[in-house]
Write a structure and sequence with these properties.
The protein has two helices and five strands. It is an alpha+beta fold. The protein has one domain: HIT-like (HIT family, subunit A, 2-Layer Sandwich). This is Histidine triad nucleotide-binding protein.
Length: 114
């Protein structure tokens, strides 16, 4: 998708502070962190939102969660805890129309979030 900021990050057109990359996903630090540890994991395939998941492309969510598991262990926040957030649609707070997961940690996170 030509105008998608996350597709541009994947293509290297916009720089990011990468944590992890493979043939399916990219993980990078959020440019405006809401916690001491705040990174995103996005699929390289453009999927607009959770509403666009299908039987054919849904395996990417499992892969993303396995990568999150790997990264939080490497960053040392697995045991203390962290939050995984996916915003879907305008009312859900989604501002980039490319499915993505925010991972926040290294501080106590309150509920409800906002």
């Amino acid at each position: 998708m030509g105008d998608c900021i996350f597709c541009k990050i994947i293509a290297g057109e916009i720089p990011s502070k990468k944590i992890y990359e493979d043939d399916k996903v990219l993980a990078f630090y959020d440019i405006s962190p809401a916690a001491p540890v705040h990174f995103l994991v996005i699929p390289k395939e453009h999927i607009s939102s959770a509403n666009e998941l299908t039987k054919e492309n849904s395996e990417i969510v499992s892969h993303i969660f396995m990568i999150i598991n790997k990264i939080v262990k490497e960053l040392g926040i697995a045991d203390s805890g962290y939050r995984i957030v996916n915003n879907c649609g305008a009312d859900g707070g989604q501002t980039v129309n490319h499915i993505h997961f925010h991972i926040l940690g290294a501080r106590e996170l309150k509920w409800p979030p906002g």
